[in-house]
Amino acid sequence: xxxxxxxxxxxxxxxxxxxxxxxxxxxxxxxxxxxxxxxxxxxxxxxxxxxxxxxxxxxxxxxxxxxxxxxxxxxxxxxxxxxxxxxxxxxxxxxxxxxxxxxxxxxxxxxxxxxxxxxxxxxxxxxxxxxxxxxxxxxxxxxxxxxxxxxxxxxxxxxxxxxxxxxxxxxxxxxxxxxxxxxxxxxxxxxxxxxxxxxxxxxxxxxxxxxxxxxxxxxxxxxxxxxxx
Length: 229
Ligand code: DHB
Ligand code: MG
Hints:
single chain, Rossmann fold, alpha/beta, binds magnesium ion, binds 3,4-dihydroxybenzoic acid, 7-stranded mixed beta sheet
């Protein structure tokens, strides 16, 4: 097989069939999202399940999501929580929040999710931590602001996941004028240099093209990268 977009998307679909399967509530939610005219930029099924597993593996009870869109990743996160767990999810577009509200109800997780409508920079200062896991998947220009809030609203051991770190390889371009690339590069440099984080990144190819996620943990204190904290 050649490593072409067609072939890696086919492999992604096969892996999704093998490992994720089908969920009527999630799939109807995506159809409703499309019918409402929202962009199809939700996480891929395998990535949704990765968020779900990271939430379970970390034993998270309070999750913060920045960027709800139609509630697809929100559903994966909410389903990983115990009955008394909560996802607080921030969405700037009221119309998106309405789609998400209906999708979360269809998936049976509405009671575990609090949607806060507004821009991240306005909503985040009103929240009270600590959150055990933070998923950042909103306007890329604000990624460093969101990372700063993740650190402030987290605690030592909080897991931070940042979506869309590859951007078709554009991430290497230090002369990029694309604000999404700049915002993502700045965030990755922050994850590598800010002593509050210890981070890595995984490039992905699949149904969403060539992209990836960064995964970080909030440190107990400022110690050299890669050593225990
Ligand atoms: C875009 C945003 C996303 O969160 C994503 O997963 C893919 C693309 C975008 O704004 O281009
Ligand atoms: Mg994304």
